[in-house]
Each structure stands twice: as structure tokens, then as C-alpha cells.
């Protein structure tokens, strides 16, 4: 595994700067370009190809549009989609596919794609069915990554969020936790909140065991470190505080840890924490974060596989690939 020293060397900055950027230190004054470079280096050093490549590629170069619902700045605040994007970019490079990076905001996508045509699209993000009218109506060669807005027409690569949440809650319950809180967010996309299966699965599991307490649900409008910080501050300021928290992603968990330390509480002695995604910084935290590993590299590779195979074979039946996750037990729970 790469170390902070490796990241600092590749990014051309000090070890202290890397540490503070990866821990979302709000007092650090550094340019967005430097932040982005550090996160991208961290993700690239964490990258492991999951299969041997044959070296074969399509006979003619195809032009692929990459739609990312996160901007550059949002990627730095929550690098989960950055990791997926980087894996797609690397796979397209290896297959000699021309990749056009686009950002899906407002109504700009159709306009952006209205110039030189693309042969296919890979769309990263939590898209829903009513977002589809913003995609080219005559293009079936679209693969969605991390959502499946129309599995009867389009290929998709997703993870089993419900199964992952159940594994986390079973683990915390086996440790003896019954007072379990949830910290998460409701991303706004095109001025509407986006549903998240993790909160629904958490609620269903807790209710099925008679453990659900609505006052232990803390959510905000975003999924960033600062949101996790503010929500945890709110939670630990109450008279009754859960002994454990499941946090919707690792970026929010970073902020939650900071709030706990500021309150002179200890992890895991006072509060146990489980994150989600296993982004590159999770193993560098203090304590190292117990989290759910999402195989983002393989998500990107699989998306490119699906798209090139469908373009080559003219396959009409769509495929939905559901990838497993893995609970990574580190030191933030007891």
C-alpha cells in the first residue's frame, strides 16, 4: 500500500500538506489545483488492476463521452467518484478509446454532446429515471455507473447497497451495539434530492429488530467532510448519544472523527464508527477507519467492458452487473 510519503513525493508537496489535505483540515490554505493533484495521486497509487489485459482493442478508435455528475471541486470533497473516473480513464487509454470528459449540470449535456458525435457514453453518478430526458434519445450505448435508471434499456454497474448495510449492522450488533446512529446526506441534483438506499436499508434493519430510533438519524444536503463534522457535532450534543454510527461515506466519516476529537471523546472507546467506500485516505486516518470497500477500479473497468462489448456485438439486451462489497475491519470499532 502507498504511504503518505509516497503521495507527497509524487504530488511534489510536503508530507504535512498531504496529511492535512487528506484529513480535510479546514485551516489549511492551499490551492484547489494542489488539493486535486494530491487526491488524484492518492487514488492512482491505490489503484490495482484486477485482471490481466490481453492487449486487444477495437479495430477503430471510438469516441466515448464520460458524464460525471460531480464537478472538479466536488470530487475533491468526496473522492469516491474521482476514483471511478480515474479507473475509466485508465481503461479507455489502455483500449485506445478517445475519451471526452463532460460534466452533467443543468441542461448543458445535450448541448455539449451536440458537436462531434460520440459512439457511447459512460455516466457516473446516482441518476434516476427522470434524468434520462437529458441524455441523447437516439443513443442506446450508455452505461450507468453507481445507478440503474432504466435497466430495461441501458447497461449499468452497481453495488448491492442493501446487502452491504446489513453486513455493517450485523457486525456492530455482534460487537454489542444496540444504540446505533446514522449520518448521511441527500444530494441535490438538478434541484431535487436524490434517494439513497443506505438510509432506507439502515431504517428497515433497525426496525426489524425493534432498535430504530428516528432521533438517531442525522442527514444534510451533501455528503462532504464538513457535513459529517456538523452532523456529528449535533449528535454528540444531545442528551443521549449512540454508541456507534454508520456513516454514509468515508468523507463524512473524516469530518465526524474531527467533531468527536474536539469534544474530547475517543474512537472507538466512546463511539464506534463505520464508513463506506474505502477511499484511499481511509487507512491513513487515526484510528484507521473500519469501512465497506467498494471495488471502484473494477466498477470502471466493467463499465468500459460493457460499453465496448455492446458497441462491437450490437447486443440489444441490456446487462446489469451487481458487484460485491467487502467489510474492511480496522480500528474504529470495538
From TrEMBL:
Q: Does the entry feature the keyword ATP-binding, yes or no?
A: no
Under the heading PANTHER family, the entry gives: HTH-TYPE TRANSCRIPTIONAL REGULATOR EBGR, LACI-RELATED TRANSCRIPTIONAL REPRESSOR
| Entry keywords, A to Z | DNA-binding, Transcription, Transcription regulation
SMART domains according to UniProt: HTH_LACI
Q: What InterPro entries is this protein classified in?
A: HTH_LacI, LacI/GalR-like_sensor, Lambda_DNA-bd_dom_sf, Peripla_BP_I
Record domain HTH lacI-type: where: 2-60
- Which GO molecular-function terms appear in the entry? DNA-binding transcription factor activity; transcription cis-regulatory region binding
Under the heading CDD domains, the entry gives: HTH_LacI, PBP1_GalR
Q: What protein am I looking at?
A: LacI family transcriptional regulator
Q: Any keyword Transcription regulation? A: yes
Amino acid at each position: 500500500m502507498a504511504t503518505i510519503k509516497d503521495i507527497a513525493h509524487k504530488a511534489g508537496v510536503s508530507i504535512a500538506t498531504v496529511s492535512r489535505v487528506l484529513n480535510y483540515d479546514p485551516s489549511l490554505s492551499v490551492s484547489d489545483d494542489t488539493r486535486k493533484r494530491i487526491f488524484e495521486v492518492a487514488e492512482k497509487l491505490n489503484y490495482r488492476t484486477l485482471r490481466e489485459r490481453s492487449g486487444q482493442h477495437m479495430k477503430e478508435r471510438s469516441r466515448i463521452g464520460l458524464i460525471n455528475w460531480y464537478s472538479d471541486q466536488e470530487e475533491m470533497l468526496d473522492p469516491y467518484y474521482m476514483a471511478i473516473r480515474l479507473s475509466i480513464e485508465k481503461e479507455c487509454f489502455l483500449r485506445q478509446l478517445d475519451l471526452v470528459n463532460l460534466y452533467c449540470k443543468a441542461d448543458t449535456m445535450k448541448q455539449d454532446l451536440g458537436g462531434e458525435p460520440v459512439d457511447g457514453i459512460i455516466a457516473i453518478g446516482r441518476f434516476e429515471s427522470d434524468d434520462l430526458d437529458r441524455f441523447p434519445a437516439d443513443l442506446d450505448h450508455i452505461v450507468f455507473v453507481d445507478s440503474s435508471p432504466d435497466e430495461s434499456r441501458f447497461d449499468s454497474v452497481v453495488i448491492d447497497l442493501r446487502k452491504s448495510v446489513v453486513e455493517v449492522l450485523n457486525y456492530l450488533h455482534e460487537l454489542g451495539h444496540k444504540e446505533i446512529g446514522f449520518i448521511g446526506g441527500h444530494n441535490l441534483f438538478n434541484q431535487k434530492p436524490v434517494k439513497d438506499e443506505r438510509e432506507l436499508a439502515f431504517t428497515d434493519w433497525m426496525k426489524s429488530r425493534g432498535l430504530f430510533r428516528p432521533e438517531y438519524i442525522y442527514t444534510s444536503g451533501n455528503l462532504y467532510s464538513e457535513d459529517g463534522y456538523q452532523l456529528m457535532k449535533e449528535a454528540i450534543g444531545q442528551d443521549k448519544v449512540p454508541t456507534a454510527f454508520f456513516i454514509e461515506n468515508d468523507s463524512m466519516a473524516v469530518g465526524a472523527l474531527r467533531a468527536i476529537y474536539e469534544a474530547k471523546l475517543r474512537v472507538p472507546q466512546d463511539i464506534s464508527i463505520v464508513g463506506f467506500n474505502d477511499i484511499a485516505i481511509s487507512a491513513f486516518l487515526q484510528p484507521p477507519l473500519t469501512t465497506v470497500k467498494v471495488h471502484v477500479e473494477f466498477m470502471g473497468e466493467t463499465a468500459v467492458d460493457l460499453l465496448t462489448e455492446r458497441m462491437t456485438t450490437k447486443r440489444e439486451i441490456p446487462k446489469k452487473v451487481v458487484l460485491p462489497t467487502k467489510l474492511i475491519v480496522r480500528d474504529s470499532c470495538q
